[in-house]
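Subject: Re: docking follow-up (NAP)

Dear J.,

Thanks for your patience while I sorted out the input files. As discussed at Tuesday's group meeting, I've set up the holo structure prediction with NAP included as the bound ligand rather than trying to dock it afterwards. The sequence and the ligand SMILES I used are pasted below, so you can double-check that they match what you have on your end before we go further.
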Amino acid sequence: MASITGRTVLIVGASSGIGAEVARRLGHGGNRLVVTARRAPELAALAEEVRAAGSACLDIAADALNPKAAADVVAAAVAEYGSVDVALLNAGQGPDMSMDEVTVADVSRIMALNYDVVVNYLIPLIAQMGDQPHGGLIAHTNSLAGLMGIPRQGPYSAAKAAARTLIDAARVELAPKGIRFTSIHPGFVATDRVNADSLPKPFQVSTERAARHVIRALEREPAQAYFPWATTALVRTLSVLPTAVSSAVLRSLASR
Ligand SMILES: NC(=O)c1ccc[n+]([C@@H]2O[C@H](COP(=O)([O-])OP(=O)(O)OC[C@H]3O[C@@H](n4cnc5c(N)ncnc54)[C@H](OP(=O)(O)O)[C@@H]3O)[C@@H](O)[C@H]2O)c1
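The structure tokens for the complex came back this morning:
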């Protein structure tokens, strides 16, 4: 198991929540971090913390929905540090959305926010890492909600499932080039955004604990990582139960 030290690490979606906490922790490892998201002041404050902890840090405000902006971030990381060893594609959002209330535009927006943002970084990163002698690791913060259709999170579940499938294909194709892929599937994490909605959140974990799990996945590089175990066990059990039973359980959980 390699710890994340002395490496160039790009974190997309680093201005708050899990991404910011991962950046803070990797800041203590003598790494070269590139942190990006849309909110420049939050990124600048984070970069200061990372530098104070002993790592170099480049902060770039950029919208991951814009393919050119994403490619420019990858190019800027390479221009500054020479390579991207690890990329954590963490931008995303899963708001409370019932299927009888959403519009077509809402569903498209959630797909863009959780799938297009991955694609926009995945393609330039594959091109870059394919040229690096040591390849690289591309990790994606997916969700346990990407493993099944979760009520009130249908568009989000669908977008995360699509991202997992795309990454699964890339992993098989690109192993000969030394590019590794890890999909990380958290359960509910107590970030500010998630705390602000009214979804029920069984077995929720702290942002700090989530960041520890994410960093362990970056170190061990499994194809898929899941946490916490209780929510993982719940999702696995629901996925093998008869549909009538799992639907009743999910409906009851969603109505709490
Ligand atoms: N919290 C949970 O319960 C939970 C559970 C499972 C999976 N996840 C996943 O974990 C990841 C992080 O979520 P979080 O809970 O830590 O939420 P968060 O605090 O809202 O973090 C989301 C990050 O993504 C960035 N982002 C959003 N849209 C972006 C865009 N268009 N371009 C660039 N950056 C963008 C946000 O920054 P800006 O707004 O500054 O752009 C922010 O830094 C997400 O992919 C989420 O789906 C979260």
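A couple of observations from a first look. The chain has nine helices and seven strands. The mean pLDDT is 96.

Let me know if you'd like me to rerun anything.

Best regards,
T.
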